[in-house]
Amino acid sequence: MTHPQIDAQLVEDMILQLGAIGRHSDTGVWRTAFSPEWVAANETVAKWGRDAGLDVNYDTGGNLWCVSQGREAGPSIVTGSHIDSQCPGGRYDGALGIIAGMVAVSALYAQFGPPRRTLEVVSLCEEEGSRFPTAGFWGSRALVGRAGPEDCNVVHDADGVSIGAAMVEAGFDPKRIGETVRDDIAAFIELHIEQGPVLEDAGLPAAIVDAITHIRQTEVTLYGTSNHAGAFPMDIRNDPMAGFAEIASGVIGHAEALGRPAVTTIGHCVPEPGGRAIIPRAVTFTIDARHPDPDAAKTMYDAHQTLIQEVATRRGLTFETSVLLDHPACQSDPHLLTALDTAAAKMEVPVMHMASGAGHDAQQMAQICPVAMIFVRSFEGRSHTPEEFSELSDCVAGIKVLAAALYDLAY
Amino acid sequence: MTHPQIDAQLVEDMILQLGAIGRHSDTGVWRTAFSPEWVAANETVAKWGRDAGLDVNYDTGGNLWCVSQGREAGPSIVTGSHIDSQCPGGRYDGALGIIAGMVAVSALYAQFGPPRRTLEVVSLCEEEGSRFPTAGFWGSRALVGRAGPEDCNVVHDADGVSIGAAMVEAGFDPKRIGETVRDDIAAFIELHIEQGPVLEDAGLPAAIVDAITHIRQTEVTLYGTSNHAGAFPMDIRNDPMAGFAEIASGVIGHAEALGRPAVTTIGHCVPEPGGRAIIPRAVTFTIDARHPDPDAAKTMYDAHQTLIQEVATRRGLTFETSVLLDHPACQSDPHLLTALDTAAAKMEVPVMHMASGAGHDAQQMAQICPVAMIFVRSFEGRSHTPEEFSELSDCVAGIKVLAAALYDLAY
């Protein structure tokens, strides 16, 4: 019998146990990187690992590893996610991926003994950037060599504490962060809540993620001429708000017309000076536009730039754009997708394939190894809030797929 | 010879003299109601009045009057404007109307002796609302019975000083503000800078204002559902920013299509919570929409409401609207318009007729007497800034029209 058995009660206990650390309101958590709550949560995971007979160690980047040593030498099969939360976040975002890994790897070890290839569960550090806004994906970036000692002094939290100082406080040595890099990982599979409503709409407990979307956030400032709202005729205005409205309608309408999985969001908009009776001098706004297909993403970004240029020229405005964030799409590894599809079929978990519209640690990990993800259905698609919730049976369904795939890859 | 002579040098001296009181940067002024600078500016006007042989008195609302007593009894012919400024404002907005009145009435007295009907120049108090934001048109409202003792304790400046306390500080008794009301004014003519570019475009020094526009400012909040910018497909969003963009394009485009004198401005827009990667929960914005024709204004406001309703329904949004300001249009008196047209022709000042897109004290005064206005060309249409400027020859042209009209009405 090679079907791993998953203990639903254990999954629920772990969700509640981790959710109690840094608890915020009834069902939320507030657990920022290197804080006492973060240290306590990792120590809880470490205890789970030791209790399950796994080897436990921290790396120099702030990540915790629980290792089921393989009988053969060679690169590891890794699963996990992040333990830090939004401020406040819910019990599931990140945490569920660590719980899933611990439950799956412990169950495999208990039920089938030591694996052939080493299996590791990682609790990654500061994915959200909720304490250090410019340090999102800190732990996974350290693993792939994209966070160095020079970053430790220039990245600060809202209280002015550097991430290096926060690391020292939590018992890490920022000078050694370069040692975090790994070149011995054969695969990374991350289980995460969906954070959107697609699975709920489809009536499915879980999905296999075949790509993580390209995310580009662009800040645009349109400059016009500030004048009296009453005394300046429309035909000679250079009104950046009129330009903004056209551009916002255009870029949102473009994504609406493209349909899934294209998305475009304008979350931020500041007119200057902002008076009711003053034609603005400038309007600054952001465009967050995502598509998992590289060609479609490029076509979309080019269309935005063309529209901004056209509207600005026609309305006598000037503009500046700067790309604040640009994470190219990350395609899941075909062999891992096959392993996940096979695992879902074997465990009789109905799944669909979808792209992730959110960024994940797996995107970083893709720079050093093949990656893939499993999504678990989110209640009403909510996330980044204490109201975030996934049914226990959906969590278990996702963990079954993970466990069976890990068995396939490592046993 | 019944053509009043206007001394350009005197006009320039007065502009510079008043501009030195509360001077801000090279060419600006910062002169808020009841401040020491405001008191000093009024005292300067009072001295001009006494030097010209006029009777000088303050009323109980904070307005200063310089009176050229008529030979006959009966209601007065009044001119003037406001002496308070924006923070900072320029030398011309308001001040030029007082200077024009002083120059015109003094010149008429010097050249033609006492008038048949009493002529008065008024320096009005707190038109801008720049110190007391909810007390705009304070002096003219007191004159028409729309500012009472009950207002004196509830209106405060940014430092928490009540307008009543500020009045006491400047030597006025807030309990007596009800006595400011006048019922013996036969006409009010206000000279003011245009604050827009219409005269500059037309190549004319001055205009006769046949109406002050209807001004309505509405605050709108569109409510949708906040969600993850990546994980929520476009087709199931309730995005208030998408709704705002459509409404903003629609209302601005409507005014553009109507053409002069319709104007619509969106100066203020705040998405909540405002994050780059979050579909906003709500967007609050203002619509400032103006038209001097009552029917056209109503049609425009109705069209805005219909559009908001249609967009909100289609996008699954709810909304609230509240009218923050609603000043119906004020038509100039036909007899005063004839007097001004005749005066312009007599003084050989080329003028056009236009509507005022800005609000003015004359709008308040219209509640107790016939009103009309003269506009003087503004350099690049600038106002509410130290860069505000009108050529001396244009100021003199406007004052010539004013003086000739006052002669016609009062001599």
Report the radius of gyration of chain A as a whole number of Å.
Answer: 23 Å
Oligomer: homodimer
Fraction of residues of chain A in helices? Answer: 25-40%
Give the N-terminus to C-terminus distance of chain A in angstroms: 13 Å
Strand content of chain A: 15-25%
Domain count of chain A: the total is: 2
Give the topology string of chain A: H per helix, E per strand. HEEHEEEHEHHHEHEEEHEEEEHEEHEHEH
Structural class of chain A: alpha+beta
Largest sheet of chain A: 9 strands, mixed
Mean pLDDT score of chain A, rounded?
A: 96
The parts of chain A where pLDDT drops under 50 for at least 5 residues are none
Which chain pair has the greatest contact? A-B, 65 and 65 residues
CATH topology of the largest domain in chain A: Aminopeptidase
Q: So how many helices of chain A?
A: 12
Q: What is the CATH superfamily classification of the largest domain in chain A?
A: Zn peptidases
Number of strands of chain A: 18
**Shape summary of chain A:** globular
CATH class of the largest domain in chain A: Alpha Beta
CATH architecture of the largest domain in chain A: 3-Layer(aba) Sandwich
